[in-house]
Specification:
The structure is a single chain. By secondary structure, the protein is mainly α. The protein contains six helices and two strands. A two-stranded antiparallel sheet has the order 1-2. The radius of gyration is 23 Å and the shape is elongated. It starts with a helix and ends with a strand.
Length: 177
């Protein structure tokens, strides 16, 4: 009986420690996609991208805090009434969506995997429920979609001109990239 009690106590402590680890890791990792995006834009000298990231992040956080003030929803663990939407998830998905939209899926896939971990971790550590996390993900992705445009490495030129000859008419289009 003593062995079973010890194992149950050890399991409870381990589960509590895991939840605490997950909570702490999501506190930090929620910023990684946006930080990666900022470093990427600076390294590429992509001022437009940095501006788009700043606008999308600022809008995301402002709307998030406005919603938290308007929707006073209790956290699952009872530590406050600002559960909806999840700020951590919103920040993570904002950065992930920016990276995907601006620089493509090579950047987006790992960023989305990390953002998904953050959302899962907020639920696992009992800080949010599924609706809080889905709301945060939608807010973060939505604000990035509004402000972010694809990164152009070169200027693209399109030339369209009429063609005619031998009694035939048409249009010619040339694209240089």
């Amino acid at each position: 009986m003593k062995t079973i009690s010890t194992l149950i106590l050890l399991l409870l402590l381990t589960t509590s420690a895991q939840a605490q680890f997950v909570k702490k890791s999501t506190d930090i990792l929620c910023l990684v996609p946006s930080a990666t995006a900022a470093v990427n834009t600076i390294a590429r000298h992509d001022r437009k991208g940095l501006w788009q990231l700043a606008l999308s992040s600022a809008t995301c956080i402002a709307v998030n805090y406005g919603l938290e003030a308007a929707v006073t929803k209790e956290r699952p663990d009872g530590t406050g009434s600002h559960a909806f939407p999840s700020t951590h998830t919103a920040a993570a998905f904002n950065g992930a969506t920016f990276l995907t939209m601006r620089y493509g899926w090579k950047w987006g896939v790992p960023a989305y995997a990390l953002a998904t971990y953050v959302g899962w971790g907020r639920i696992y550590s009992d800080r949010h429920d599924i609706w809080d996390v889905l709301g945060g993900a939608a807010l973060g992705a939505g604000t990035a979609l509004i402000f972010t445009r694809r990164y152009q490495t070169q200027n693209t030129e399109i030339s369209i001109s009429p063609t005619f000859g031998s009694g035939k008419y048409g249009i010619s289009a040339v694209m240089r990239f």
